[in-house]
Design brief:
- With 193 residues, this protein is mainly α.
- It has one domain.
- A three-stranded mixed β-sheet has the order 1-3-2.
- Bound molecules: zinc ion.
Length: 193
Amino acid sequence: MAKKSKSLLKHGFKAEAERISERLRKELKISKFAPLCAFALAEHLGVTIAGITEVLPKEGVNKLNDPSKKEKFSGLLFKNEDGDPVVLHNDLDSKKRQQSNLMHELAHFLCGHEVPEEIRNLIYLYNLRYFNAEHEAEAKYLGGCLQIPKPGLLWKRKEQCSEEEISEYFSASVDMVNYRINTLGLNRRFKRN
Ligand SMILES: [Zn+2]
């Protein structure tokens, strides 16, 4: 899916995503180079975070966190009865994973992605999953920018930090670090040095 997502992004989206990441850090008085905690960002945006172990019975948790399943539950953005945004997430995932899951869902929120009402009803009726490839590509890209901002990544690469060190610094998985390095084409740029 990562290969496909590139072409699904609207022209200018990548630059816009970096700007959003920088603007939010500014609002939270965090340097544009620094890590941003997804829980703090959610609070800032007025999005409630709920972990599956906090709100679901054990049976539901086991179902969503079943490691034998191909797609384990990571997170979901929805509106509660009052119309307020809530992210339900898998709080049994690793801390780093939780950060990227939450950033992904917050990216959906920031992009204003919504499931159309009539489709939402069908989803509940037939227990379906809504999937919008364009929305997913945007949330993936913006989520990555929120977690690892370009200026911060450039700085860490200049300092010759390893992927593991960058992963620790931004509380992101090594996979996410590599995803950001690859999408920004930094490998090519830095290999010449
Ligand atoms: Zn998504």
